[in-house]
Amino acid sequence: MTAIPIGRLLRANTTGCVMGCRLSQLSTPAFGDLLLIPLNDGTKIYGLVHEIHIDDDGLVRQLVSADVSAEVIEDNRQNRNVPIEMSIVFIGWEDAYGRVQYTRVPRPPLTLDEIYPCTGEDILHFTGQVHPGYLRAILRNEELPAADLVTAHLRQVLGVLHHPDSAAWCERYLGEVIALLKDDYPQLMDILTAVSAVLE
After folding, report:
1. CA atoms 95, 119, 132, 107: torsion sign
2. What pLDDT, in 10s, does the model give residues 171-181?
3. Domain-located, residue 81
4. I want to staple 56 with a disulfide (CB 3.0 to 4.6 A). Which of 19, 60, 63, 169 is the partner?
């Protein structure tokens, strides 16, 4: 893999993981971004960033209340040992033969495994199935900010250059959302309202 890793895995289970990265690496992943974790057996796990957490420490608390220069602030940001933590929900995986599966991953990745940003080609490959069944992992997890996550993911996919058929994909995507939430009208309307801002 030629891409540059954006961080390493801190802890994981079969539904998601937490990765750590340095502040200087923060410009790459954002909320809702699709990431992948390649495993040694050729499997790739795909997940969406659903939370970004930046801890403080004793030094930061002192700097907040002190009159310090911009250089000191920047030096502290770049050279802190406290990692930025990003929570990722797994939404599918790809086997060693390149077949995409929208099911729970067979086993979690290991601590310190590298995590990579998805290229446009990766995004189209993962989301290109007839039915976007991976939305189950988002919409049926009550701990996730579903409307915001679905909207951010939609924006990323539609932003891929040379998307082969963005209108048809978007129709399938929204159709899956409606099918999964047909018995939860309040959440459905919340998501459709959020999505409408992307489609305007």
Report:
1. positive
2. 999 999 999 99
3. yes
4. 60
